[in-house]
């Protein structure tokens, strides 16, 4: 790769333009906008609703949302939102990327890139520094690779507009499960059960689990746990709330139970996480 120049991606070329990180915004400065370059939102926390060229959806942590040049991008924050915002140009005649949302299954990769980009921002404060473009390239290549692997696993499945590979008859389930994702994202702090969630869409718990896992790669309860722990980590780092208060804000009965779940998934107690990561 030529520094500051063109970076190869899947047989196509891109030119990195700029990167900026937005942390815990409650609302977008503009509810809609149109860009001259490709615009990529890589969401690390929170959720927002979007409409791109007539395609609507909800994006949350681990999702990439891509808007083509000259296309109206409408958006509204659902939960306080943190995301990386990249601009890049595509070489003429190189073909189009996707438009809308793609969910990264490798969320740890996005978290790692998030940490590295924070360090890069301290070392190279210019938004157009080419080092930042390396992480844009990594995100695009990861999304492309996951899509190709899904296509191989699905055989002759069709690729939906948001990057999900679907067999015939699965599109209705995908729309339904996107609604479940939105509902969980908005109600993660409530006392929820699998039975209650299934009843919202007139499904049995077994049916909901099977359909949801086919759509997201996780069970509904695992997805809910991820949402709650993302919020717990945010509150540990950016507030002085004690563990019981954080547990209540995240949908857990008490700090003891939150601590057990946190230690199991994050591999350290909440108190240690706060000490190691709080600035």
From TrEMBL:
Keyword Transcription assigned: yes
SUPFAM superfamilies: Homeodomain-like, RmlC-like cupins
Name of one Pfam family that matches: HTH_18
Family annotation (Gene3D superfamilies): Homeodomain-like
MF (Gene Ontology): DNA-binding transcription factor activity; sequence-specific DNA binding
Location of the HTH araC/xylS-type domain: 178-276
Keywords: DNA-binding, Transcription, Transcription regulation
PANTHER family on file: ARAC-FAMILY TRANSCRIPTIONAL REGULATOR, HTH-TYPE TRANSCRIPTIONAL REGULATOR EXSA
Protein's name according to its UniProt entry: HTH araC/xylS-type domain-containing protein
Organism: Paenibacillus swuensis
